[in-house]
Write a structure and sequence with these properties.
about 425 residues, mainly beta, two-stranded antiparallel sheet, globular, transport, OM_porin_bac, Porin_dom_sf, signal
Amino acid sequence: MLDTRRGAAGAALLLLAQGTAQAGGFIEDSQGSLTLRNFYFDRDYKGESNISARREWAQGFILNLKSGFTEGPVGFGLDLQGMLGVQLDSSRDRVGTGLLPVQRGSGEAAEEYSELGITGKVRYSKTELNVGTVMPRLPILISSPARLLWQTFKGGHLRSQDIQGLSLQGGYLSRMNQRDSTDYQKITIAAPNGRFDGTAESDEFIFLGGDYALTKSLTLSYYHARLDEIYQQNYLGAIHQFKLGPGEFKTDFRWFLSDEEGDGKAGSVDNQYVGLNFGYKLGGHRLTLGGALSSGDSAMPYIAGSEPHLISEYAISSEFLNADEHFWHVRYDYDFAAVGIPGLIGVARFMKGTNAELPERLGGKGREETERYLELSYVVQSGPIKGVALRLRNARYQNSFAANATMRDDNETRVNVDYTWKLW
């Protein structure tokens, strides 16, 4: 199957190049890169659990080949992405990290897995249409890069910036491929802690919206999304950045309104999520305080495997998104470039969720959860390994959920080493 896809991609690229012999931009503006991603994942469960740990180590290779556009009012192009994941360490009792596929028969992690993505693209003025393999990064759908390989989707994605200050986006998706899979499947809803029926499937996810820079310091956003027969969602956002004293102040507002769509095959969806962050940056220091309220009869829905655009984003053990949950956090970032060490960044964060409502079998109402998070990252600035990025993350997560809930008390460590070669 993979060889067939490669052949089709090569034929398409050859035909397109032959048909546009005068289209210098197609070749001249092309780009090629190879990213190496080494990922160690260790989630050590505490307390009562049938699984003591999820621990694996893997190496990823991500090849990106992007053409330019043919010349003329309407330009055509083609992008190819090849991804390969290789197991370095795993065992049957430690699988399930999301780094590697788990084989159904043996219950062991695959030795390797791969995927080829093909994307055709058309550009007119400042409007571009991508068809094929797409990876949206929008408030209503963020294709997850949080494991070894990316989550991808099949469909079309239209973006336009023809109106100054306004970025419009719309699209139609029919299939998704999870981070630890090579098989495209129908689209499903995330269902941790028994929130929804995670087996409900849809072959139609539609989205439309945009971002408008009202001023140089204020950007407003609106998006609408619909997962056919499962849920629909509206999003409003606002980001305001301005000088305050010797530093810079930032506010980030996020509001989601969600309910079931059509037959509601995944169960009742009724949620309103309101979140707000306040941040202040001074020199190498950045302090962020924020909170969010989730209300309604259900948790906020989002696509399975994707990254929800929440105030709690970048938490690694939970998304703090249960029904009626109240969330707050404090985060401190320090950029060591301020003291002469460019490329080194440290993060410390405390997150707390209260009043969470789970099904009775998982603990019922009034549940709480906490995550303490530390991160240190460094990008080599010079020498033969310039550009190598190292990232170390550690989190301690605790909750008052029942022992059979999806999220359980754990200590988690993630180590990443990434490097991207620019081929041309």
